[in-house]
Specification:
By secondary structure, this protein is α+β, with helices and mostly antiparallel strands. It has 18 helices and 46 strands.
Length: about 900
């Protein structure tokens, strides 16, 4: 009987388990059927009626020190939903929450995106959808594919025939294929890219916002490459006016090698080997630091930390295979005749310009006069083109890439500019010394004499503490107007004119409080605010103990609402600033008129201020000279002749001379600077440094605005708290170099043929490191060169700590004899009038610099060499 009941009990248990299993399977099938397509995607997640598919970066790649676009498609198959889309890239210490207010109606899919900076090394992206109560509806934690573990240039390609651009994968690059559907509409969404190539693509397909994003991306340092040939009309449709491009549609067919010869081919092969060696070195550095691979348990569990496979290159068979394939391959190509404003020719063949480069803001535009697509055996020709692209990326991107590879770079000038508090809020010690002196006199001799005379010395123990309390209260009252009791904002705002009446308004600000309580501020939602990002190298050198990121702890939250943007500060340490960045791009009439001339002697001309505000502490940066302009009052025209000036050859000159401090309102003694002087000093350093990196366009007026030029982020913050900062403007201008039918070219440096991929220049020119350097310069082929000059006023000796001015001999290659002729010697400045032997039919010049270096001269900055040409061939 007992055995019977045991069997019956077992049967009921089996039946119950079967019912549970069938029910569970039914539910699973129902849910899987509802989301079966999304469930196959590892970046998809769902809960109830809400599903979310997440994407980020390009092909899910990102880089530390860059901005990253995070996107999500949120599908709602239930009731209308309202809440917040939250993104975190967890940090080691305190997180920044980015939240965007969202509404997803029933049976609708909404696309949501946020640009965030990636500044730390946890390798994780955490995405949540929150309801109005702050509760998580659906969330996903993703391992980020980090691009810093390879020394690659990131290239975006817009092409209707991308297969013909496959060669772009071959030489130190990561390539992402784009179109009108996945190209960002904000330039921060393009920040991951170093180069964008547009070839055989109708740019009319791009929206105005996408074109504007590309334009701003170039202005901020990006390199835009435009292929033309048969497809010039389509490619240039949206870019022709923006970048001042002219072209004629007639095609001419030529057999070309894209300037490739045996010497350049050998140089390309050496660069490939160097690139491979650099990647091996980086891989070895990372391999030795296991804490970087597996530093965070959460990252390791979710596969977000880089693995051995992700960073180790293994055998470099691909390099050897490519070296074996590379050869000089002449192919037939149709070329057009096109030009871009201020273009510098970089590749010429058969007296035709095949490629030229023009600076635009901090970036550049590369114009190819042929279709960049190749097929099959033509791959070597394509690699030759891409090699030229990589050699000529903007100096801004070169600097950024080298900072990312070799170590971090933080613009301390910018951060310092936000850190000063006006001296009015700092207590003056004089009155406190007086109060202390009175206290000492009263509790000392006065109290002693009075009590002795009254024979009440026993009251000393009562009166001394009483006077102490009274004077303590007095000090507190006297100092009440000097103490900072509420949060305040420090800021630097820079209005940079890109075109005649278009301005980029960059606002950098820091929120600081005298306590660690929570607080918040609101601004208009038209202003996009993010945490201020810098280039971080901690991913390479970190050796921390494994730590689980705390996803609930945050330093600040940036909430992008439909009506306003709210910045929350969450228990930040007292007097510790949190840095933010906001940018805006709008029409703003430029009322500065500059009529500036320079022909090798003194810079002269006039500046008119047509704005309704004064411009103070102004300087003019013109062809290497920094000129102290001072104040330009509203409506005033000033003559710049005889103004204080100094030639700047390298970055070191900024920090080893005092002219910048005098322009800022200080003296030769930096220790006497006020907060305002220091603030202006840092802003000028921040704006001047990039012009020391080899830009061909380096002429601009910088000044500080007195009064409100335009209401913006700072004016809204100032309504809620005290604000300390400055507003500057930067206005580019063209210089008239023409005189008596001739035109003066201040420097041949922009025409230098770059030798190596990713070659960086800390100085305005290359430096002489081993006593001798030979450089080739490709001058515009349609110019008639009249003479070369080595001018004393452009080669002034400036004492500096980390570099030296050139002191030696300058030789020009004599193309008739094949020898180098001594032309100029330091101390013997002059002119070379007979140039016929030293310049080819295509206007190529080769110069050798020689100097005997002393042990202390490890960096010698090459000199300015100028030239004159016939004015008829000049375009300003």
């Amino acid at each position: 009987m007992k055995e019977y009941w045991h069997k019956k009990k077992l049967i009921w248990i089996i039946i119950a388990l079967g019912i549970i299993l069938v029910t569970f399977m039914g539910l699973s099938i129902k849910v899987a059927g509802k989301f079966q397509n999304k469930a196959q995607n590892q970046l998809s997640v769902y809960s109830g009626d809400i599903s979310m598919t997440i994407d980020y970066g390009y092909n899910q790649y990102a880089k530390y020190g860059r901005y990253m676009n995070v996107r999500a498609d949120v599908t709602n198959e239930g009731d209308d939903f309202h809440g917040w889309f939250q993104v975190i890239a967890p940090k080691l210490d305190n997180n920044v929450f980015y939240r965007k207010e969202v509404t997803v109606e029933s049976d609708v899919t909404e696309n949501i995106s946020i640009n965030i900076p990636l500044t730390d090394d946890t390798g994780i992206l955490h995405v949540k959808l929150l309801d109005d109560d702050g509760k998580s509806v659906v969330e996903k934690e993703i391992g980020i594919k980090i691009g810093n573990y390879q020394k690659d240039i990131y290239v975006g390609v817009l092409s209707e025939n991308a297969a013909k651009l496959d060669y772009t994968h071959q030489v130190g690059s990561q390539v992402f294929y784009l179109d009108e559907n996945n190209l960002a509409e904000d330039y921060l969404g393009l920040d991951l890219l170093d180069v964008i190539i547009v070839n055989q693509f109708d740019t009319n397909r791009l929206s105005d916002l996408q074109i504007k994003a590309i334009q701003q991306w170039v202005y901020n340092g990006g390199t835009l490459v435009l292929g033309t040939g048969e497809y010039a009309k389509d490619t240039l449709a949206k870019f022709q006016d923006i970048f001042s491009i002219q072209y004629w549609e007639e095609l001419e067919e030529y057999k070309l090698t894209f300037g490739m010869n045996e010497e350049i081919l050998d140089r390309l092969k050496r660069d490939l080997i160097k690139y491979d060696e650099a990647n091996k070195l980086l891989a070895e550095t990372l391999r030795q630091n296991k804490a970087m691979y597996y530093g965070y348990s959460a990252a390791t569990e979710k596969g977000s930390s880089p693995t051995e496979d992700a960073v180790a290159l293994g055998p470099s068979g691909w390099v050897q295979n490519l070296l074996d394939k590379l050869k000089i391959v002449p192919i037939r190509k149709n070329i057009i005749h096109a030009s871009i404003k201020d273009g510098v020719p970089k590749v010429m063949e058969k007296k035709h310009i095949l490629m030229e480069v023009s600076s635009f803001g901090y970036g550049n535009v590369q114009l190819f006069n042929l279709d960049m697509g190749v097929e099959g055996e033509q791959e070597s020709f394509g690699i030759a083109m891409f090699y030229s692209v990589m050699k000529n990326i903007s100096s801004t991107k070169r600097t950024q890439l080298n900072n990312e590879f070799y170590g971090n770079y933080v613009d301390y000038n910018l951060y310092n500019g936000m850190s000063y508090v006006d001296t009015e809020n700092i207590p003056k010690v004089g009155k406190y010394i007086a109060i202390l002196a009175i206290y000492v006199i009263i509790v000392g001799p006065v109290l002693f004499i009075v009590l002795k005379k009254l024979d009440k010395r026993s009251l000393t123990w009562i009166l001394v503490p009483s006077f102490s309390l009274i004077f303590t209260a007095l000090v507190y009252v006297v100092g009440s107007d000097t103490r900072i009791n509420e949060p305040y904002v420090g800021y630097v705002e820079i209005l940079s004119f890109e075109e005649e009446n278009i301005v980029q308004d960059n606002v950098y600000f820091a929120l600081t409080a005298p306590y660690n309580n929570r607080y918040k501020v609101d601004i208009d939602n038209k202003y996009q605010v993010v945490q201020l990002s810098d280039s971080s190298s901690r991913y390479m050198y970190s050796n921390r103990k494994a730590t689980e990121p705390n996803l609930d702890r945050y330093l600040t939250a940036i909430n992008y609402g439909t009506e306003k943007t709210t910045l929350e500060v969450n228990r930040n340490a007292a007097f510790t600033p949190i840095y933010y960045y906001s940018k805006n791009h709008y029409s703003f009439e430029n009322k500065i008129t500059l009529d500036i001339h320079y022909e090798g002697d003194e810079v002269y001309g006039s500046i008119t201020n047509g704005f309704q505000f004064d411009i103070t502490n102004a300087l003019l940066k013109c062809d290497g000279f920094v000129i102290n302009i001072g104040t330009i009052k509203q409506g005033e025209t000033i003559d710049i002749k005889d103004k204080e000036s100094q030639i700047f050859i390298s970055r070191d000159d900024l920090y080893t001379t005092t002219i910048i401090n005098r322009i800022s309102g200080g003296t030769d003694k930096l220790s006497d600077n006020t907060a305002d002087v220091n603030r202006r000093n840092n802003v000028l350093y921040h704006l001047l440094e990039p012009s020391m990196e080899g830009h061909s366009k380096e002429n601009f007026l910088i000044g500080f605005i007195q009064g409100d030029a335009e209401q913006g982020v700072i004016s809204q913050l100032a309504e809620q708290m005290d604000a300390y900062g400055t507003k500057a403007l930067s206005v580019p201008f063209d210089v008239d170099h023409t005189k008596e039918g001739k035109t003066f070219v201040p420097s041949i440096a922009p025409f230098e043929e770059v030798e190596e991929i990713g070659e960086t220049q800390y100085y305005n020119y290359k430096s002489l490191e081993n006593g001798m350097k030979t450089l080739e310069y490709q001058l515009p082929p349609d110019e008639k060169i009249l003479s070369f000059e080595y001018l004393k006023n452009r080669n002034q000796v400036v004492k500096k700590d980390y570099s030296s001015n050139f002191s030696g001999d300058i030789y020009f290659l004599n193309y008739r004899t094949g020898t180098y002729d001594l032309v100029f010697t330091t101390g013997k400045f002059g002119r070379l009038d007979d140039v016929s032997s030293y310049i080819t039919d295509e206007n190529k010049v080769t110069i050798r610099y020689e100097a005997g270096l002393t042990p202390n001269e490890y960096q010698v900055v090459l000199p300015y060499i100028s030239y004159w040409k016939e004015a008829d061939h000049v375009t300003n």
